[in-house]
């Protein structure tokens, strides 16, 4: 049963920020209320974010993309511009929960929940996104790569709200995608999530980002594997070696969904598959220049 709690309904951003130090932000509630009901979360005073003006918006200015803190997974999925501006995030949104959850769940809530299996986080890491934090005292921006400090722990201070996320859309010389491996197609917790961005210029890989979910206490980038690919012509052998390296950078657990061994194997296979697909799609374009 849900324990009693106070619910504050601030009318705008300033009021929300003023109340924040003494309460817990409530966005879609699809994590928070479930955790409170299960007694995993003991919040006693919730601050509803639903009245903040223009808090549910997606802006694209040139190649710069920004989504406001109240933007839902459904909003992302319905915005046709994001198919090019954030392919991996669209891949994640398509397999995120069911429609009712997608209409309620926010991207910022997914980022703040900090679960290693949070599906929008590998895409946001692969896009090199930034997290916008605002408190009554001012604002700051952190790379999402530096946001997580441990299992369900992040850099957000109690008086800060995540007011947005932003990134530069992948250019024509980049390919970006995400794959969620789970026991069912819908409404299932991720067993392994892999997002990659590969950039190819002059026949070589000039940049690679590999973000892995559900195989460590936080979603993280496999930087040693990325370094093996950067500056190289990607052969099947090199991609396989880098995918094995990515596997060696993980620290998965056994649980009811999969064994640690299975998760390691899946990281190897999925990283190899996604990097190969990215490279093949770019090699054709590069040759045509
Ligand atoms: C049936 C079901 C299916 C699900 N399927 C998936 C799935 O496929 N993939 C997946 O990744 N997750 C899934 N989830 C988990 C959940 O839906 C997501 O994590 C969701 O994105 C959380 O967003 P929310 O808006 O509901 O956040 P809330 O539950 O409102 O909040 C989550 C946490 O973030 C904090 N928070 C929220 N917004 C902000 C903000 N702007 N600034 C600072 N802190 C904030 C809250 O205080 C809380 O600690 C599922 C949940 C359910 C119940």
Describe the structure.
There is one protein chain. The chain has helices spanning 13-19, 32-37, 73-78, 82-85, 87-94, 99-104, 107-113, 121-126, 223-229, 236-248, 260-287; strands spanning 6-8, 24-26, 45-48, 58-61, 64-68, 130-135, 138-143, 148-150, 153-154, 161-168, 174-181, 192-201, 204-213, 220-221. By secondary structure, it is an alpha+beta fold. It folds into 3 domains: 6-47; 58-168, Uridine Diphospho-n-acetylenolpyruvylglucosamine Reductase, domain 3, CATH 3.30.465.10; 174-287, CO dehydrogenase flavoprotein, C-terminal domain (Enolase-like, domain 1). The strands form 4 sheets. Strands 4-5-10-6-7 form a 5-stranded antiparallel β-sheet, with no helix packed on it. It has a 4-stranded antiparallel β-sheet with strand order 11-12-13-14. α9 (223-229) runs antiparallel to α10 and α10 runs antiparallel to α11 (260-287). The chain starts with 5 loop residues before the first strand and ends with a helix. The structure holds flavin-adenine dinucleotide. Flavin-adenine dinucleotide binds next to β2, α2, α6, α7 and β10.
């Amino acid at each position: 049963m849900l324990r009693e709690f106070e619910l504050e309904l601030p009318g705008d951003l300033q009021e929300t920020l003023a109340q924040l130090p003494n309460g817990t932000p409530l966005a879609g509630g699809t994590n928070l209320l479930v955790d409170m009901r299960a007694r995993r979360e003991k919040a006693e005073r919730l601050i509803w974010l639903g009245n903040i003006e223009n808090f549910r918006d997606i802006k694209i200015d040139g190649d710069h993309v920004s989504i406001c803190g109240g933007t839902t997974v459904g909003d992302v999925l319905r915005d046709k511009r994001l198919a090019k501006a954030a392919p991996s995030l669209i891949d994640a949104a398509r397999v995120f929960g069911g429609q009712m959850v997608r209409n309620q769940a926010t991207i910022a809530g997914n980022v703040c929940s900090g679960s290693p299996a949070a599906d929008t986080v590998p895409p946001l890491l692969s896009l090199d996104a930034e997290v916008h934090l605002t408190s009554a005292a001012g604002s700051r921006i952190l790379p999402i790569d530096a946001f997580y400090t441990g299992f369900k722990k992040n850099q957000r201070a109690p008086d800060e709200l995540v007011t947005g996320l932003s990134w530069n859309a992948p250019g024509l010389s980049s390919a970006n995608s995400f794959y969620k491996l789970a026991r069912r197609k819908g409404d299932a917790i991720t067993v392994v999530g892999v997002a990659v961005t590969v950039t190819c210029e002059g026949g070589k890989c000039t940049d690679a980002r590999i973000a892995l979910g559900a195989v460590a206490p936080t979603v993280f980038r496999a930087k040693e594997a990325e370094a093996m690919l950067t500056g190289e012509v990607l052969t099947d052998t090199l991609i396989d070696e880098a995918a094995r390296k990515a596997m060696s950078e993980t620290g998965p657990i056994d649980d009811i969904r999969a064994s640690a061994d299975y998760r390691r194997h899946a990281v190897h296979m999925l990283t190899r598959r996604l990097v190969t697909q990215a490279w093949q799609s770019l090699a054709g374009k590069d040759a045509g220049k």
